[in-house]
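Quick one, tokens below. Sequence please?
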């Protein structure tokens, strides 16, 4: 079955978007039942089904650097302009 699907996909891509459009249309009517079966399998403990759902529905969140407020004592070295510039440029 997978070999047949792969062959159809290869042919669809090779013959342009019209073939690909027809292939998508023929698969579209089955998508709701496929998703229902996938969810049922995941709920039944199928780890691959759960992973597939989670990877497609909830992609990994990219790490975001959050600003961090620093509290330095007044009158210290960092109050002078030169060290402040060096820190801002990543040279400290």
């Amino acid at each position: 079955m997978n070999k047949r699907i792969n062959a159809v996909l290869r042919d669809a891509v090779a013959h342009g978007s019209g073939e690909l459009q027809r292939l998508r249309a023929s698969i579209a009517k089955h998508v709701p039942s496929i998703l229902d079966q996938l969810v049922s399998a995941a709920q039944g403990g199928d780890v691959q089904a759960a992973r597939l759902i989670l990877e497609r529905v909830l992609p990994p969140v990219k790490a975001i650097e959050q600003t961090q407020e620093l509290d330095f004592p007044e009158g210290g070295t960092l109050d002078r302009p030169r060290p402040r510039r060096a820190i801002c440029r990543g040279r400290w």
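The chain has five helices and no strands. Residues 76 and 83 are 10 Å apart (CA to CA).
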